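Q: What would this chain look like folded?
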Amino acid sequence: MNDDKITLPCGYTTTYQNIINQPDNFECVVCKDHFVNKQECLSVKRNVLVMKQQEAMNEYIKLKMLKEDFDRLSLDRENTLKESFSSIKNKVDLRREELKKKIDDYYFHILNEIENIQKETFATQMKKDIKIENLGLNPISLNLDQKDKIKRMDEYLSDLDKRSQNLNKLISELKIGENYELTKPNDDFKIDDFFGKIEFQIREEKLDEKSFSVDNSNIKLFFDKSLETGLNSIRDFELTFDNKLLIFEHDSIYLYKDSECQRKYFSENNNKICVINNELFAVGCKGYIGIREIYSGNFYKIIETNEKCFNILKCLSKDKLICLSDYTTISIWNYKTGKLIVQFTEEKTISALDELLGGYLCLAIESIIKIIDPDFSNVPKILTGHTRKVTCLKSLNAKGNLASGSEDTNIKIWDFQSISCKKTLIGHTSMVNCLEKLKNGFLISSDRFEVRLWNIHFGVCIQRISIYKATIRVNSENYIALCHIPNNQKCMSILKYE
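A: My prediction, written as structure tokens:
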């Protein structure tokens, strides 16, 4: 629509985008000799026809993509149907976990209340000075007559009864816990009202953007340059916000700009790096995380961790760094203060992680995705749908969408807030090993044999490039760094996305 040719009153033409943002009356953007009334110009039949033709073309392309989506889903109806039920199954699982947590929390609350009562009772009893007279039979004098003997015996029995009552009272106080009971709910308690019921609801499908452009003819990836680094053992790399490239091999970190090596920094026992901002990057080393300046290599801060090796090192929002060690232990640090914010360990192996909208943390554990809230207080949400191990995760936008790649060769687009899978991108022929987000609703991914560019909005692949074993890094300027292995030798290439 923005590129539609609009005819001006003077006879010249310009594009729709040059007119739509103008005020109601504006100077002609071409000849500058007259003023144009925007509404009258756009209402000219020739211009109306041009816009209608473009609108019809856009709607046709949308319809065509919907038909392709239908055909793709129809190829495996059983799996499509199974996937459509994954959201409600996830919600049932989450409800169960929420109720289990509430029950456990209340269970421990009651136990704590009992312990407090027990301690208070014990403290009260210890303050009492309880003395028990020695017990013994009270002999009756043989010199008494029968009447007096009976009287003395009655008095003795009365004394024994009083003593027994006193001892029973003391014993009851010592065993006061037996007097407490757990009250139960009414007999008409219904689990379905408590847990919830399954109901069918008709939902109106809405597009995320009313004027979303579906013309992908000008969207493409192209090679910008190749880097002859001479490095055969590249262990990790990062693309900075201003298009510099950090590469580390063995105990050295190299800074490249415009295909030339600008700096070389020594860094012993490092295995992961991540870019923090335009000035700083983090490097995970044996026993510590080093925060260093990009251009000079000088250390900004050293964070002692005692970790031997890092599997993942990422920069989060609010000055935080997250690292994964031993594939099970998550640690989150404030890189400015060097303080540990939180640390926890999962029972099973974590293969990928990322930060979502609102500071939520997503973890790939086997074939599921676990969503943990920022303060770690609530029951994690669980996303299920992949049939094999999830290998990569990528937060997509501020609406809470998430992309996941898997050994099952599929890419899934999730709405983590509603715990539902929105789309499944099918096309890869081997394990998806890398996912990165591009601007304007596009996604780039790689498997063993190729790199693919996807339109997420319509769930279609719009470009394929044959590249063997590519690892991808992307920056905000739409530059893409690839580490790939042609002829059994690691190479670096820079792609541009337009």
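Residues 204-218 have pLDDT under 50 and may be disordered.
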